[in-house]
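Can anyone check this?
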Amino acid sequence: MSTIPDPKPPNDGLPYRLITGKDDAAFCRRISEALALGYRLYGSPSCTFNGTDVIVAQAVVWPSAVENGARDGTPLAPDRSLLPG
């Protein structure tokens, strides 16, 4: 028996989040916690170097946000990017 996913993220969360931080265990824990809540990875991670630390970013989305397309009704491509208008 499958469960229907909640249409809204928990705790009044946003359907799209960009999580950023220093590339360390704390950042990985934040991503893991988002995944445990039900968010899905969105795209590839990005990283940069600020002269001292590697800084990383990973977007996550709530599943119903992807399934329902963009907020303005623009459909999403299979890779979850916006289709050209």
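Reply from J.R.: I decoded it. The radius of gyration is 15 Å.
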